[in-house]
Amino acid sequence: MSDNPYSTAVLAWYESNARDLPWRRPEASAWSILVSEIMLQQTPVVRVLPAWEAWMERWPTPAHLAKVPSGEAVRMWNRLGYPRRALRLHACAVAITEEHGGEVPDDHATLLSLPGIGAYTAAAVASFAYGQRHAILDTNVRRVLARTETGIEYPPKTQTKAETALAETLLPPTPSVAARWGVAVMELGALVCTARSPRCADCPLAGQCAWKLAGKPAYDGPPRRGQTYAGTDRQVRGKLLAVLRASHEPVLKDALDAVWDDGVQRERALDALVSDGLVDPLDDGRYALPG
């Protein structure tokens, strides 16, 4: 197996254009990389960076996080969004501490067995922390491959087997190079081959990109709807959690009722938080973060 036709150009571009992010530095621990990968899901780097730094200062190892109640992870998550990720990270820390001697596993299958760790995160940690050879498919990578190889502007909404197979055929044979290719093509999608305003003039693959060579045909697949936030249950959930994060004591129901006028929506959001394990209803009628 030889290197893929894009790797030399993309790796050279990455060498000159990669952002200096702390979880990419040689001294970054596997735990710090795992934390970054969970935080970066559906959240931009600019918001993740200060949260990651604060998290790693407080909990530099899985054992440090495993010692505290899961509610402290939810509190520290602050406004990163999708707070169930905080619970997953806490559950991971407990499993790593209790079952793996406090060290993030280097085996891909074992990583997959950790709470809340899916195919992408397991591949990313195995690659970026341990220099292994795995296909890494996040939104940015999928978009680059869709345009370069398939000639379409956007990948399918749901990841397909064909995308996985393509990503695997493009993996350079040397594990360390494959790991660097994974982060390089991801960076290319984040900085150049962006969703809304691709900078094709700056792309190292412009001369090989099937989509550009075809005249950049407009996307004609199912409608791509952006996520809304204002007025949604997500917004209400966030407001309810903000009250609980701000208090180190359980809060009365009145304090939660004050954050949103629509009682039906507010109760639905609160019930969902309880169901997700993000809020504990206490016997005395008050509410608290879990643990």
* Radius of gyration over all CA atoms, rounded: 21 Å
Residue runs with pLDDT of under 50 for 5 or more positions: none
Globally, the shape reads: globular
- Strand fraction equals under 5%
Order of helices and strands: HHHHHHHHHHHHHHHEE
Annotation field: number of helices: 15
The helix content is 40-55%
Architecture overview:
By secondary structure, the chain is an all-alpha fold. It is 54% helix and 1% strand. The protein has 15 helices and two strands. Strands 1-2 form a two-stranded antiparallel ribbon. It is globular, with a radius of gyration of 21 Å. The model has no long low-confidence stretch (mean pLDDT 95).
Main attributes of the structure:
two-stranded antiparallel sheet, globular, 15 helices, 1% strand, mainly alpha, 291 residues
List the helices and strands and how they pair.
Elements: H1 7-17, H2 30-39, H3 45-58, H4 62-66, H5 70-77, H6 84-99, H7 108-113, H8 119-130, H9 139-150, H10 161-169, H11 175-191, H12 210-213, H13 233-246, H14 253-257, H15 263-275, E1 280-281, E2 287-288
Antiparallel strand pairs: 1-2
Helix pairs in contact: 1-11, 2-3, 2-8, 5-6, 9-11, 13-15
